[in-house]
Amino acid sequence: MAYDYINDGNIDADALQKGIKGNKKARMLQLLKMLNEETDENHPLSTNEIIAKMKELGLEVNRKTVKDDVDLLIAFGYDVVIIKSSNNSFYMGERNFELSELKMMVDAISASKIISTKASNSLIEKLQHLCSRYQADELLWNRDVNISIKPYNKSVNLIIDKLTRAIGKKRRVNFKYNEYNMDKELQPRHDGKVYDISPFFLVWNEDHYYLVGNEYSTKTTKTFRIDRIDGSSLVISKEQAVRKPERDLLLKYSQRTFSMMADEKNERNVVLRCKNNLITIMVDRFGVGVDTKIVDNNHFDLTTKLYVTKGFFSWLAKFGDDIKVISPPQVANDYKEYLEKILKQYK
């Protein structure tokens, strides 16, 4: 039988606390909490220190009970490391996450343009509980570096939650989509058009978080920035979502898309002639499995499927004459026109 220990006036709090202090299970839990929060490889606790801390909490322990409790934690799979001496010391060794893994997560959260400052701080605080208090301080030194790029949309978490539930239930979603006006204020796009979307998945791309789904009216795959979705208008429809396309759709978007606003109608098989110094950049962009062929001592041809957009042309332009579109001819011509329009502004 379970009990809720809520002091509603009918429970004697002092008696309850007395029961906890004399409880061996409470002692064990307190030791586990102490090892998790206050120890690491550089900050072990000695037997005497543990006894002193336990007594401050009103828990009666001695050297034998500390040893027995540590042995039991080890038997249950906790990586409690024992430093042998006349006054054994202990620290929590392997945890669910290495410090380096927590650091990467904290830095990713801090740098994210989708997660608000308040939400970032909340997530980071939760991650801090997964290491010692000493290590927790090491996670925070650059937490506020990216504070100026944080979003204004405070309902992002609720939007993500609703979209995730809709995907799980295979339901369509309806929402308005925002854009900035010249006063830098968000306003509904296309006079407040309500989009009817079958959500496929959420995906990170170029520092932003996107919804990829099928628009009911046009029967095409479209993408929407999560932080531009109007949270107040977002509802999960009762209508069944269309069936998801092939499983490699996410891979296609990550490898072929230079703008998440790309239209799948613009997918092309493109051949790019690149100077050899670009090989690392091309592998980073398209993956180690991308089709390449040596042309001469200075060049290689790269063949891949991608979405031809202004974003793709903008990406090409930054490489100058180190890269050239070989085929298809229409893409090469479109890229030429793209560059000519830019040059006209400087004539």
Average pLDDT, rounded to a whole number, is 84
Q: Numbering strands along the chain, what is their spatial order in the largest sheet?
A: 9-8-7-4-10
Regions with pLDDT < 50 over 5+ consecutive residues?
1-9
Please, how many domains? Answer: 4
| Helical proportion, percent range | 25-40%
Cα radius of gyration in angstroms: 29 Å
End-to-end C-alpha gap? 83 Å
Order of helices and strands: HHEHHEEHHHHEEEEEEEHEHEEHEH
The CATH topology label of the largest domain is SH3 type barrels
**What is the global morphology?**
elongated
CATH first level of the largest domain: Mainly Beta
> Structural class per helix/strand content?
alpha+beta
Overall description:
Residues 160-230 form the WYL domain. It holds the Pfam family WYL. This is WYL domain-containing protein. It comes from Anaerovibrio lipolyticus. InterPro entries: CBASS_pafABC_assoc_protein, WH_DNA-bd_sf, WYL_dom. The protein is an alpha+beta fold and 347 residues long. It folds into four domains: 13-92, Winged helix-like DNA-binding domain superfamily/Winged helix DNA-binding domain (Arc Repressor Mutant, subunit A); 99-149; 156-245, SH3 type barrels; 264-344, Alpha-Beta Plaits. 38% of the residues lie in helices and 23% in strands. It is built from twelve helices and 14 strands. Strands 9-8-7-4-10 form a five-stranded antiparallel β-sheet, with helices on one face. Strand 5 (178-180) and strand 6 form a beta hairpin. Helix 2 packs across helix 4 (63-75) and helix 5 runs antiparallel to helix 6 (117-128). The longest helix is centred in the last third of the chain and has 16 residues, at 329-344.
